[in-house]
Design brief:
Elements (H helix, E strand, L loop, with lengths): L1 E6 L7 H15 L3 E6 L14 H4 L9 H10 L2 E9 L2 E2 L1 H14 L8 E7 L4 H13 L13 E3 L3 H4 L3 H26 L17
Parallel strand pairs: 1-2, 1-3, 3-5, 5-6
Antiparallel strand pairs: 3-4
Helix pairs in contact: 1-7, 3-4
């Protein structure tokens, strides 16, 4: 089993990374392979709605990490998307990444457990979680819970390490992700699979 964890901060070893590392530690203790993907400082294009991916399964832009991650997602079993909070929303970088990943490669993510985690100095966390979680909800992905909102607080990594409640929330995410992955594996081995329907598209224009 493998879980991909995404650090949507341009600070590779900052607060978001600190939170992701706490989750990763628990997953590794349960013999689940992990990879933290640093979204990094480079610009990531927005989706332009060209729909070329509908025939290729890949994004038309091939000058960043999006298509590479789509391929990695095929073999992954779970996902954690992490972001700092900017103006009460996730980083623009993580949202551009997710919009293109899910539009072009959504089939590689569907029916696999995922969660969002955010870090903030003070506020804007629940609004940010809501934005990220909507990618999962529209793509048939079970959301991994914890015992409170999936957030840590601090202005630098050392402060996050003092947020004992936040760190516990991250550890419980790791425990619940482990439980869900192993439960899904047992279900699949027993021949129990989710029922799927073709998408029905409507609008409100008459």
């Amino acid at each position: 089993m493998k879980v991909l964890l995404f650090n949507g901060s341009s600070n590779e070893n900052g607060c978001t990374f600190t939170a992701l590392s706490e989750i990763e530690k628990v997953l590794n203790e349960n013999n689940i392979e992990t990879e933290i993907i640093q979204v990094g400082k480079d610009a990531i294009r927005d989706c332009i709605g060209c729909r070329a991916c509908r025939t290729t399964g890949k994004c038309v832009f091939n000058d960043d990490m999006v298509n590479e991650i789509i391929e990695k997602a095929k073999m992954a079993d779970g996902f954690v998307f992490g972001s700092p909070v900017y103006y009460a929303h996730p980083s623009g970088r993580i949202l551009s990444l997710m919009d293109r990943l899910f539009f072009a490669g959504g089939n590689n993510f569907a029916y696999k457990p995922a969660c969002a985690i955010v870090s903030a100095r003070r506020a804007g966390t629940t609004a940010s979680l809501d934005v990220i979680n909507k990618h999962f909800l529209i793509n048939n992905m079970p959301i991994v819970p914890s015992n409170y909102w999936n957030m840590v607080h601090g202005n630098k990594p050392d402060e996050v390490k003092q947020d004992l409640e936040g760190l516990q929330i991250m550890r419980i995410i790791g425990q619940n992700m482990t439980w869900m992955l192993k439960s899904f594996e047992l279900s699949k081995n027993a021949g129990i699979e989710p029922k799927k329907e073709d998408k029905i598209m409507t609008n409100f224009i008459r």
